[in-house]
Design goal:
The chain contains 11 helices and 26 strands. By secondary structure, the chain is of the alpha/beta class. It binds alpha-L-arabinofuranose. Alpha-L-arabinofuranose binds next to loops.
Length: 508
């Protein structure tokens, strides 16, 4: 197939906030216990943190990590995870039906975050608790000293405040499965009151209000409008969550998942702007896509896990090459919406629907989806350029909420162009969704004098190829250095079928 992609230096969507490359650590399955924390593991440091995992987290390039949930947070007493470990209570954890030992809490996570070089995005419990608990947690984490809770933190070994700047006001509060689920009005009021007292303690914090758990929720749309109707002036972001899966065994359709993400984002932007209009507000609400990923491989296995065990192997999706392509397109979609999506978290970080896997007492390795993420985080920083893409498309049929189906046109190529002027680099991400056709791509770079310095390629003959501890590099990127210059502002690049590509241009 023939395709043409034009970028002009002066046509920009916006600047990428590096926080769109966030991740997520929940007290769920083996994410914390056996994931980031495993005292007794050969690579564990003095605090029990696996250094092999820490190294992979740094390589992944995530700048911010959401903690401690997820569904978990809605029944969590943060105090349980502070103070002497031998005195911490064991609790029946109702979100995931496990036993929570509380060996790790905010004190340990703050230490881990420092070692990993990441900022914390802390979630407060608006399920079983409320504004008062949220206020107390901010005081514990961010107040310098001289109060009961800040002094408690100091006694627990942290003289300096954690200074956590980003806070989630609960999690998926519209979901009937959520502990302490609420109506939109109930949640909107609770979030507003929590935001007020949290900001009294630390006026610099940024707050995320819960949007819908996913765009298929019956209250989607009304939920956002009602919640923001209450909280608009007090919050900085509204959250979006979405998980994608190849449930029909239909790869071309699965590869089109990012179109759904794009439509979801654009709809939420419209709702935010509608609320702003009703309030005559000039403030622009930003979006935090703080849970996204592929999640479906482990669904059946999870039904077999016995209840009330400690850190069972829950949600352990083994990601294949098809998943890596989808994750690549989800990331380019986030880049292309960088004017409004200012934060996003791949869910999650280790073992639980994660780019990094571990074996207890054994190795740590990169899943297939690790690569599009680390490459995006490394090279997808700067300003996203507005694309003009001319390429053939295919169609997929999608069900609508009204029992009918809808035909969607899916371009074979999914792209994002990111200009980093400081580094003198332009990076073009290209995914080819075609099962069998390569693309002769003509890139027209208006206003640039550029050399294609590196072409990174992620490709496999098998869509079901996975990385394992024994074969950690079954799916891994390769790199060539074409060193080809643009001629009259154009350059031709061959894009292989079903491939993820990072084209790195050096600007003259
Ligand atoms: O990431 C796994 C779970 O998915 C989270 O706990 C919850 O917020 C979402 O439903």
């Amino acid at each position: 197939m023939k395709a043409k992609l034009t970028y002009s230096k002066s046509f920009r969507i916006g600047s990428i906030d590096p926080k769109i490359y966030g991740s997520f650590v929940e007290h769920l399955g083996r994410c914390v216990y056996g994931g980031i924390y495993e005292p007794g593991h050969p690579s564990a440091d003095e605090d029990g943190f696996r250094q092999d995992v820490l190294e992979l987290v740094r390589e992944l390039g995530t700048p911010i990590v959401r903690y401690p949930g997820g569904n978990f947070v809605s029944g969590y007493n943060w105090e349980d995870g502070t103070g002497p470990k031998e005195q911490r209570p064991r609790r029946a954890e109702l979100a995931w039906h496990t036993i929570e030992t509380n060996e790790v809490g905010i004190d340990e996570f703050a230490k881990w975050a420092k070692k990993a070089g990441v900022e914390i995005m802390e979630a407060v419990n608006l399920g079983t608790r409320g504004p008062d608990d949220a206020r107390r947690l901010v005081e514990y984490c961010n107040f310098p000293g001289g109060t009961e809770l800040s002094e408690r933190r100091i006694r627990n070994g942290h003289l300096k405040p954690f200074n956590i700047k980003t806070w989630c006001l609960g999690n998926e509060m519209d979901g009937p499965w959520q502990i302490g689920a609420k109506t939109a009005d109930e949640y909107g009021r609770a979030a507003t009151e929590a935001a007020k007292v949290m900001r009294e303690l630390d006026p610099d914090i940024k707050l995320v209000a819960c949007g819908s758990s996913n765009s298929g929720m019956p209250t989607f749309g009304k939920w956002e409008a009602t919640v923001l109707g209450h909280a608009y002036d007090l919050v900085d972001y509204v959250s979006l969550h979405s998980y994608y899966g190849n449930r029909d065994g239909d790869i071309p359709k699965f590869l089109a998942s990012s179109l759904n993400m794009d439509a979801f984002i654009k709809t939420v932007v419209s709702i935010c702007d509608y609320v702003a209009a009703t309030k005559r507000s000039s403030k622009k609400m930003m979006l935090s896509f703080d849970e996204w990923n592929v999640w479906f491989h482990s669904n059946d296995a999870d039904t077999q896990i016995p209840r009330w065990t400690i850190a069972p192997p829950q949600l352990e999706d083994k990601y294949d090459f098809a998943d890596a392509l989808v994750v690549g397109t989800l990331l380019t979609t986030l880049m292309n919406n960088c004017d409004r999506v200012k934060m996003a978290c791949i869910a999650q970080l280790v073992n639980v629907i994660a780019p990094i896997m571990t074996r207890e007492g054994g190795g740590a390795w990169r899943q297939t989806i690790f690569y599009p993420f680390s490459l995006s985080s490394k090279y997808g920083r700067g300003d996203t350029l507005r694309p003009a893409l001319d390429c053939p498309s295919y169609t997929v049929e999608n069900p609508t909420p009204f029992g009918t189906t809808e035909t969607t046109e899916v371009p074979y190529l999914e792209t994002a162009g990111v200009l980093n002027e400081e580094k003198g680099e332009l990076t073009v991400f290209v995914t080819n969704r075609s099962m069998d056709e390569s693309a002769d791509l003509t890139l027209k770079l208006e206003g640039f004098d550029a050399v294609l310095a590196e072409h990174i390629l992620l490709q496999s003959d098998r869509f079901d190829a996975v990385n394992t501890e024994e074969h950690p590099d079954a799916v891994a990127p390769s790199s060539t250095a074409p060193n080809a210059a643009t001629r009259n502002g154009e350059i031709a690049v061959a894009i292989e079928p079903h491939s993820y590509n990072v084209l790195r241009f050096k600007l003259k």
